[in-house]
Amino acid sequence: xxxxxxxxxxxxxxxxxxxxxxxxxxxxxxxxxxxxxxxxxxxxxxxxxxxxxxxxxxxxxxxxxxxxxxxxxxxxxxxxxxxxxxxxxxxxxxxxxxxxxxxxxxxxxxxxxxxxxxxxxxxxx
Length: 125
Known about the structure:
By secondary structure, the chain is of the alpha+beta class. The chain has one domain: Alpha-D-Glucose-1,6-Bisphosphate, Chain A, domain 4. The chain is built from 3 helices and 7 strands, in the order βααββββββα.
């Protein structure tokens, strides 16, 4: 069964520059995404409870977005953090894109909700 791309949006009270630091650096990602994060040559090493997963940075643009691909995952799947602005409210919006089996999207979305709440706590939101 193939996975499908899904998108989640989270309004955040924070400047794009500060938010981008939390999405694209080992120190920032280590605050909310994983227990331990290291980076060498565009490969990020994410650690949770003693297990590690590696992800390469496929693409990034300062203060706009960063796209990762798990090294042990399919070539055409990725997860991405992008920073958008609402044209109506001028509010910063964190956009998360990820892949999951259709029946797992709800559970994966809840996991992202939990992770992003931790990020917002670190940002003082």
